[in-house]
Every structure is written in C-alpha cells, then in structure tokens.
Amino acid sequence: MCLVCIAFASWVLKTANPQVGDTWKAVLLANVSALSAIRYLRKYIRAEAVTSEMKPPQNMLANS
To answer: Which UniProt keywords apply (predicted)?
Structure first.
C-alpha cells in the first residue's frame, strides 16, 4: 500500500505538464498520497511494536 502511494505520487509529478496552470493539483495529489503512505506506515509500525510487546520471548516458551 505504502509503496503504491509513493509510486503513484512519483508518477503524477513526472507526468504533470509544468506549462499548464494545473500543476498545483498534481503536486497536491502527490503530497496527499505521500502523507497517506507515511501515516499508514507509522500506524503499521506502532501496531507491530504493540504486538511484539505482548508476545512472551521465545526462549521463555522453550524453558516451560
């Protein structure tokens, strides 16, 4: 998901025609897409951290 948003933002910026007055729309779309990808990645990392804290260490399971 994250990589798709960043790739889409990159494609939008590459294909935007700077001579047209609508360049700001392409930049806005690229920024929103990139921010969405960053937000998703941060949420995913937080969820992974919480999940790993809840799991007991593997060596404790082997000793039981």
So the answer is: Signal
